Amino acid sequence: MLELTNEAVEKYLQQLFGPELRLTGVGELGSLDQQEMKDFGYGKPLELFWEKNGESKSAVLSMMKGDRYGHQEYWDRARILMMQHDTGQRMERHVKPLGLGYADQAGKLFAVQNPQEFFVLSEKSQGRDYFRDLYRIREGELRDEDVALAAEFGRWLARIHSEKHTDPDLYVRRVRNLVGDCECIFGIDDGYPYPYEFFPPERFVALEQKLVEWRWKLRQHTDRLCAVHGDFHPWNILVQEGSASPDFRVLDRSRGEWGEAADDVACMTLNYMLFGLYKKPYLSGSFATLFSTLWESYLEASGDTEICKVIAPFYVFRAMVVASPEWYPNHPIEVRKGLFRFVENILQDDIFDWQNVNRYMENA
């Protein structure tokens, strides 16, 4: 937990209630020892006392501590506190929320007043959208630089993933989110039409039951936690023009700093499969070349052959996204069917056979 000074607390209260305010006391409001039956808590609240214009008042300041239950990162905890601040105002008999704020790394407190939506401001990078290259390749124009760029993707991912982190609970959380989060497999599944004629409910049930088995398989691989991008697909890449060697910039790092390397590898290579399925009901030609190039480059640079033991559910996630008629409404139905065959077949193997990927494209 962050240590707060009385000076920092007073300045925060002055932002909310005016410069005339003077802090008169700060004390802990209860403790875990005094809560008897409650062995687990989310932070130790402070009771604040102040005077303004001769009137004495008090309030409670609460922070959260990190834990294994989806609160590892400060933005996790911010989400909970924002929710409490917003919803508490609209419930009968709920204590009145007085302020929402954040503490910076120096321990200074800043008020966030009347928030409605949040935003992020980023630099603008020049470059060519990589997905446009894939449309060109789909029309039959594969260049040497396309293959070189796929190889560079593999080397770059290997460098990123070489940064390891020891936090078994966080790895388990990432796998749990992969399967059950609103933005991941179960959430994406719920976004399909119900019932969906090309993937009826019984197939969803069988798929999700198999994924639960995989969730428990992956628990033995918590030592694989590493730095990741989290959404490494063609729409998040800008290819740099005029460079002597393959160069690119990435956008929109998602789902946290740490995760499973297989997610990044699956994300890009699945998109090669998607584009390839527009030509034939299996991976062939230019996109088979790009698929194999990235895999070969990644394995050579990383030496991570274990990735083939864990990648299947990550491929399922990416395939169910790009097969979704909500997210990608213009796919021919044969493209979707090819992706559905892939996700059902890949979960049957303990080790992904990337060199013979087309055997996963056969009818289940």
From TrEMBL:
GO MF entries: transferase activity
Tagged with keyword Transferase: yes
SUPFAM superfamilies xrefs: Protein kinase-like (PK-like)
Pfam families from the UniProt entry: APH
Superkingdom of source: Bacteria
Keywords on record: Transferase
Domain Aminoglycoside phosphotransferase: 128-243
Protein name: Phosphotransferase enzyme family protein
Source organism: Desulfobaculum bizertense DSM 18034
UniProt lineage: Bacteria, Pseudomonadati, Thermodesulfobacteriota, Desulfovibrionia, Desulfovibrionales
